Amino acid sequence: TDPCAAPPIPEPKTPIANRVVLVLVDGLRYSEGLGHPTRQYVPNMDSIAQQGVIIEPFFNDGVTVTVEAIPAVMTGSWIGTTSFFDPDCQVDSIFSNTPYVHEYIRRQLGFSAQDCVYVLGPYCPWRGSFHPSYGPDYWPQWISTGGGDDANWMETQNLLQTTKPRFLTLYLPDVDHAGHDGNWTEYLAAIEHADEIIGELWTWIQSDPDYADNTVMLITNDHGRHTSNFQGHGDGCIGCRQIQCLAIGPGIRSGLISTMERTIPDIAPTLARLLGAEAQFSSGEIMTEILEPEMFLRGDANMDGVLDLSDVVTNLGVLFQGMPNTCHAALDNNDDNSLDVADPIHLLTYLFQAGQVPSMPYPNCGIDPTGATLSCVSHLRCD
User: Fold this and answer.
1) S-S: 52 plus which of 199, 248, 286, 315, CB 3.0-4.6 Å?
2) pLDDT digits (tens, 9 = 90+) for 118-154
3) Phi and psi torsions of 199, nearest 5°
């Protein structure tokens, strides 16, 4: 094996949803969004959060400016960007140092550019990566409207009715622009208008036969605004750092307020997993706690469909050697919702001393009837 060879491209996984829509609301401070006591400026996002999942708290844990935060959302890392002269626009721009989630999805799942669309305003968008395993051949189709929220929403409606992309990113910049202008009334009006667009988008998704019941929508933002001055942002104050992340659709839990702290790098790997891809070079994690439980087979740690000594070895490897495993719920042999040395002991006792039979789901694949709190992103035998 060549130690310098590029890592292999991950194989596609069973998708959780057939289509995904990502909405980015630039510069919405949490205190005027879902953090407001009555959520009066965001009634549609409030409704979506109540029907789906909201993560509280959710943070920008890096740089609270758009030029750094948007690439972090797209790549799942804070590795950063590099300046370059973009020959397509004939101006200086930036590219990301790690692949966009769109690149993972296109390369691993075979999506076309029309299937993977990013609607935004600037005529010269920030670019994805030049990674040797991904790169420009797998960039999204950028559609630059040259305008703000209304222009981007109008173009999105056209796409939804014509090419019907399977992964659509909609960028809404006007809240940030209004905040920088320093007019409080216009800032609040921009929030309300972005919320209206999001409400109309979700209503349309639910009514269209190609999108209804098979589309996940995730809504987030890149940064907030200063706690004491809504006109600016860019430091580490709570107003700049705390942002919102909510999701709704098939495979997403319903009516959940997830209190597990999450951050921007966790968005890209979650989006990738929803469609069956892997954000291979992301530093973030899949937010498994917001997903409906995956099917698994209790005790089948190595996912070969048989409980034997090799499962005990795998269990110990995960516990004491940091061996990666995509279904911790399967390792919970004694069904106590924690992973410790009691789990391999429980399995050994069952295998060799006629001990207690593993609880469901066993001997067949299924979901935990008592509600597993341990994650199961994928169990290969049960996918």
Assistant:
1) 248
2) 999 988 889 999 999 999 999 999 999 999 999 999 9
3) -65, -45
